[in-house]
Specification:
The protein contains seven helices and five strands, in the order ααβαβαβαβαβα. The chain has 190 residues and is α/β, with parallel strands linked by helices. It has a domain of 121 residues: 3-Layer(aba) Sandwich (Rossmann fold). The model has no long low-confidence stretch (mean pLDDT 88).
């Protein structure tokens, strides 16, 4: 049986999609994680999401003198995250709360006016490693006049065995969310 040209194209496209999916799931850190390295900024923005490692990373960066201000963003956990940061030694006066956002897009859109109000020109986004690409690019999309960096947080299950732990679910969903943010909001992930 001879395949028609469109059938061959469909088979090749399907095979390429399977290969890309296997690569994406076998090396998620290489594709999803963006780490800007040792940078200094005017502020840190901690994205919500009930991930304690994010506050730990933000406190560590603040206490190392990387940035003098922190904005905690997220409707469900911004106040809790502020308390965690204070308990880790960050002065309450250095923390501003954005308590209304429920999505990464809203984290960006609601935090950017706060960043502009404090005159921030260089900002570090702190979120989980698998969320760092989308978080960073979302902020860059909505505020191209501000220079954004990423310093992701890692949990205990980040680097080994992630696919067998809850992180595996978040990683798989993140690929869908990257595509969704590109299609719905024009946030180019690469």
């Amino acid at each position: 049986m001879k395949l028609k040209r469109w059938q061959k194209c469909a088979l090749v496209s399907g095979a390429l999609l399977v290969i890309l999916a296997l690569i994406a799931l076998s090396a998620p850190e290489a594709l999803l994680c963006v780490d800007s390295g040792d940078v200094r900024a005017d502020a840190l923005v901690v994205l919500g999401g009930r991930a304690p490692e994010r506050c730990a990373q933000a406190a560590e960066l603040f206490l190392a003198g990387v940035a003098p201000k922190i904005i905690v963003s997220g409707a469900e956990d911004a106040l809790d995250n502020k308390r965690v940061l204070v308990n880790k030694g960050v002065p309450a006066a250095a923390i501003e709360v954005e308590p209304n956002s429920k999505t990464t897009r809203q984290n960006a859109r609601f935090s950017i006016p706060l960043l502009r109000a404090i005159g921030a020109r260089r900002v570090i986004i702190v979120t989980s490693w698998y969320h760092s690409r989308r978080g960073l690019h979302c902020f860059q999309h909505y505020a191209p006049d501000i220079q954004f960096f990423s310093r992701p947080a890692y949990s205990d299950d980040s680097r080994s065995g992630w696919s067998l732990r809850p992180t595996g679910r978040y990683v798989r969903l993140e690929y869908l969310k990257l595509a969704g943010y590109w299609a719905c909001y024009g946030v180019w992930p690469f």
